[in-house]
Amino acid sequence: MPKEIEESIVAERRAERQVFHNLPKEELVQHALLLGQGFQIDVPLPEGGTAKGAIAVETGEHTARSAQDKFYVKNPESGDIWEKVNKPLTPEDFALLYMDVDDFLTTQNHEYILDLALGADVTSATRQLVRIRTHSPWHALFATNLYRELTPDEKSRSEQVDYKSDLEILHAPGFSASPERHHTRSGTAIATDFTNGQAVITETQYGGEMKKLGLTWEHYVADREGHAALHGSLIRKKNGGAVAIMGGSGTGKSTCAQIQIYEDGQPTIQPVGDDEILVDTDGIASNIEGGCYPSVGNIDPIKEPEFFMGSLQATSILENVKMFEGTLIPDFANLSLTPNTRAAIDLDDMPNMDKEGIGGPLEDIILLTADGRGVMPPVAKLRDYEQAMFYLLSGRTSKMPGKEKGITQLKEESSALLAEPFLVREPRVHAEAIGKIIKENNINVWLVNTGWSGGPYGVGERMDIELTQLIIKAIASDTLKDIATTVDPVFGFEIPNECPGVDSFLLTPENAWSDKNAQMSAKLALAQDYVRTFSEKFLPDLDPNMLPIAQAGPRV
Questions:
Q1: Do 216 and 282 belong together in one domain?
Q2: Contact in structure between 430 and 538 (CB atoms under 8 Å)
Q3: Is 153 found in the same domain as 246?
Q4: Which domain-ending residue is among 180, 209, 225?
Q5: Is residue 48 part of a domain?
Q6: What percent of the chain is predicted at pLDDT more than 70?
Q7: Domain ranges, residue 21
Q8: Confidence of residue 297 (pLDDT cuts 50, 70, 90)
């Protein structure tokens, strides 16, 4: 085609297209339906009949994060970025990718521009203003649900002609990057220029990429400001303090945080956030997001009522959830598309969740380990700073099927800080900020097993969420910290002898095994893996700061 004709067609497309700024959620739903991006589910009513509910969408090839396609712009200004999880692009390659995606967006029939924010604390330097541009209305709805609203002053600033956000995301699931032209691995790219506050997402419909890009960005900002970003949920205690529940994707941190205790009609324990946290230099914890993105496969409406009801609301999104045959009623047990079915829910549709997002002074950190070998106790208290840092840096857990592209079976992993895919600096750098906050604020650190008991994965049983929530309630109520404990002779942590509401028999993992010798063998093997993995990751250069932490690990 002659160049002048091609330019004429492009100019005509740009003249006819529509650009929508900050549409309300209800209108984004209608746009998505009109463009055939999904359909509204039917919600059965108690009195009979149905009402229209969430919009159900399918994400095609990508039903999880594409961890191998995450890039950053390598330049002197960005500092030392950890290249294990962030592949380098030259400034020239990113500029070309950014330009091509920008050109793509400006030739689409519809473009949606959203002005949103990350970070609940509007007074903090980690409060980040974000502008998102996308051609997909359901993804615009996703971002509106998961990011935070602007304050009136921020909104006024965003309407100025010369406005520049802290981060601009060009989101183009319909655009394929070119490995030859852009030097990406494939057509999928999640690329961030930390220096100039720009990011690009291409060729993936999976909404979680937009969400986790925000967490990666906040890791960068928190490091710059001397704060800490945590991959975890947040609870506010009766005394105004906070509990952070850190865990890998799929280990239960969102569900664990959905606990409430009421006195005289007022919550004494209240969830504040379900997945991403900021902690400032004074130890004040706050939520990064404005919504929740829980797994909904086999969701139990009794044990997880907030997520269940929230997932059905008219402006929520159900990702890759199939319907009962012949109906528009969601079948949450049907995992035929992916084990990683999700819901994107605005905090406004979760009545028991705190909306302000400020948790208060951090007093307890819970590290969730989904132990696939069935030997870790339901709960253990970590004795001191060094032991806490050992288990935090080790990040030993199990990678759940479907949470990352290509993971179809349970896989043991050591994810530093339980957030390895989202880190920007080498783990020791981020750990230093977290460790300083733990030490200076005398924070209690606990290990809670949401994995298996009585045998390994496939033999033992998954820890009951009600048991785990009772343990977390005891921690958040400050009733567990003064209970007598027994030191585990292998791992060295302290196992409480009792816990309110929990049969003490269940607190000792050996009790659940019929073959005690097999249990001890599995336990020693896991302890050896802890020591070996820590040594390989953090001691190859004989860092003297790591030696006391290494010595606080298992005794094998």
A1: no
A2: no
A3: no
A4: 225
A5: no
A6: 94
A7: 3-34+66-225
A8: very high
Phi, psi of 79 (to 5 degrees): 80, -165
Interacting residues of 519 by C-beta distance below 8 A, sequence separation 6+:
374, 375, 509, 510, 513
Q: How confident is the model at residue 252 (pLDDT cuts 50, 70, 90)?
A: confident
Domain match, 206 and 243 both: no
Look-up: residue for tokens 């097999």?
Answer: 518
Is residue 299 in some structural domain? no
What is the b/e burial string over 161-197, where b = at least 16 CB atoms within 10 angstroms of the residue's CB?
Answer: eeeebbbbbbbbbebbbbeeebbbeeebbbbbbbbbb
Is residue 124 in some structural domain?
Answer: yes
Same domain, 97 and 193: yes
Within a 13 Å sphere around the CA of 504, how many CA atoms are in the beta-carbon half?
8
| Degrees, nearest 5: CA angle 233-56-41 | 110
Domain contains 121? yes
Q: Do 239 and 221 fall into the same domain?
A: no
Same domain, 178 and 254: no
Q: Which residue has the tokens 């079915």?
A: 341
Q: How far apart are the first and last CA of the chain?
A: 71
The pLDDT of 36-64, averaged and rounded, is: 96
Instruction: State mean pLDDT over 438-453.
Output: 96
Decide: 251 and 370 in contact? Cβ < 8 Å: yes
- The predicted-structure confidence for 384-443, as pLDDT tens digits, reads as follows 999 999 999 999 988 666 555 665 567 888 999 999 999 999 999 999 999 999 999 999
Can you read off the two tokens belonging to residue 254? 């969102």
Beta pairing, strands 189-193 & 242-246: unpaired
- Identify the helix (H) or strand (E) that includes residue 222: helix 208-225
Whether residue 102 has pLDDT greater than 50: yes
* Residue 9 confidence (pLDDT) above 50: no
**Do 109 and 17 form a contact (C-beta atoms < 8 A)?**
yes
214: amino acid identity, one letter: G
Q: What is the rounded distance in angstroms from the CA atom of residue 238 to the CA atom of residue 217?
A: 32
Nearest to 510 by CA among 476, 462, 460: 460
> Half-sphere exposure (CA, 13 Å, Cβ side) for 394?
29
Mean pLDDT of 297-317: 95
What are the counts of helices (DSSP H) followed by strands (DSSP E) for the chain?
14, 28
CA–CA distances in Å: residue 124 to residues 78, 312, 393: 21, 34, 27
Residues 487 and 375 in one domain: yes
Q: In whole angstroms, what is the distance from residue 79 CA to residue 523 CA? A: 41
In the chain, the amino acid numbered 490 is: V
Whole-angstrom CA distances from 95 to 91, 103, 105, 183 are 6, 12, 15, 12
Please state, as a whole number, how many other Cβ atoms lie within 10 Å of the Cβ of residue 401: 18
- Indicate the pLDDT class of residue 328, thresholds 50, 70 and 90: very high
**Model's pTM, two decimal places?**
0.93
Is the CB of residue 214 less than 8 Å from the CB of residue 258? Answer: no
Which of 13-22, 24-33, 207-216, 528-537 has the weakest average pLDDT?
A: 13-22
Spatial CA neighbour of 383 closest among 513, 552, 505, 514 = 552
Each residue of 338-397: pLDDT tens digit?
A: 999 999 999 999 988 999 999 999 999 999 999 999 999 999 999 999 999 999 999 998
Count of structural domains, the chain: 2
